[in-house]
Amino acid sequence: MKLYTYFRSSAAYRVRIALNLKAIDHELVPVNLLKSEQQGEHYLSKNPQGLLPALETEEGVLGQSLAILEYLDETYPQHPLIYGNAWEKAQIRNLSYAVACDIHPIDNLRVLKYLSTELAVDDEAKNKWYRHWVEVGFEKLELLLDEKHDFCVGDKPSLADVCLVPQVFNALRFNVDMTAYPKIAAIYAHCNTLAAFSDAAPQNQLDAG
Ligand SMILES: N[C@@H](CCC(=O)N[C@@H](CS)C(=O)NCC(=O)O)C(=O)O
Question: Of the four listed, 132, 135, 137, 156, which is most buried by Cβ atoms within 10 Å?
Fold first, then answer.
């Protein structure tokens, strides 16, 4: 199994965490987003959407991190990412989608590039945009979390943690003040005590340079 990845891609980071949690044998294939390799012929032949990540399996190449994560959960049931009864599973998805569908896409590289190149937004305003949408999302997410658990929904990592941790990493990179979100910050710190999470972190990737 091959994962097309970039060290700072938070969607790829999600899948790296899941592969580690499930101890699935895999190879990481770097695709440099800053060199626009995701738009190159080779990568587009794998994933025509031109976005990271993509997972190459014996069955074919799959894009979209949430689809990949659910596929891995079904095919490698050890250490389930979506667990519990129907209600608990829905809670996991609720938190995961709050990050992956509502926060991440507005702050994606191509959106930030469009702000700079097409709308002539300067770096300061672009970073303000980034922080704003993370803060709006984290403010609401914080209300959905409780202090009883080490992870988003219980006492073991789920899809929600797999989505949240990369988003917090990026938020810190853009100087979001995490003291405003103590529950999110505590979950982030706790997850990073696990090798599956810390090994998947951007600074620990071979392509981190
Ligand atoms: N919904 C997609 C989002 C994928 C995505 O936006 N990937 C980013 C990296 S985190 C990317 O490839 N960006 C390249 C670009 O914006 O040109 C997923 O979850 O896989």
Answer: 137
